[in-house]
Amino acid sequence: EAGVVQSPRYKIIEKKQPVAFWCNPISGHNTLYWYLQNLGQGPELLIRYENEEAVDDSQLPKDRFSAERLKGVDSTLKIQPAELGDSAVYLCASSRGPGEQFFGPGTRLTVL
Amino acid sequence: EDQVTQSPEALRLQEGESSSLNCSYTVSGLRGLFWYRQDPGKGPEFLFTLYSAGEEKEKERLKATLTKKESFLHITAPKPEDSATYLCAASIQGAQKLVFGQGTRLTINP
Questions:
Q1: Which among B13, B10, B8 has a CA at the least distance from the CA of B108?
Q2: Which residues of A touch B44 (CB under 8 A)?
Q3: Quick one: chain B helix, strand, coil %, rounded to 5?
Q4: What is the pLDDT of residues B34-86, one digit of tens each?
Q5: Which residues pair with A50 in a beta bridge?
Q6: Which of A9, B44, B57, B61 has the most CB atoms around it within 10 Å of its CB?
Q7: Is there a contact between A5 and A67 (Cβ–Cβ < 8 Å)?
């Protein structure tokens, strides 16, 4: 069974530029999560999708962050414009309902 | 506020030296307690889920236990390949989200 796929693995951008991350979850997993992980910290939830519906986006900074999950499969997380403090690892995870969450390798974002 | 705290932040052991990692949680309602392993540059890898106090689960040299306030990850006779950051996370009832601790960075010296 293929795992969660994320791209790109690394991204370096100038501040104020836009950036987008893509995630393809494990086949059959209807729940998709985006997490942010700062160095030396545990992941923090940004948004959770049940199929194509965002059911928990309370921690998503909506002034600059947006996400979508068209057709309830893969998902895109966007930042526009990026700030220096957005440098972090962005993790995508998926699960079959409320079960164990399986994580992708993450995208390491560096904002200069 | 739901909170998960892990200790120690870092632990260095000699190969074969057994020890335990601690995960304390204060949450409104625990649905489950998860343990993950994270290697540098990779995403967290699922290890265990514990659902009720007194429950124990084992995998190779690892054993996870759960009480009403904390969970332990016991590592028996560790090997250098067990070196990683170990994360615990509490799943909150009704919220279907994981609240993670900051992790314990474990180093096993040969």
A1: B13
A2: 43, 91, 103
A3: 5, 60, 35
A4: 999 999 999 999 999 999 999 999 999 999 999 999 999 999 999 999 999 99
A5: A31, A53
A6: B44
A7: no
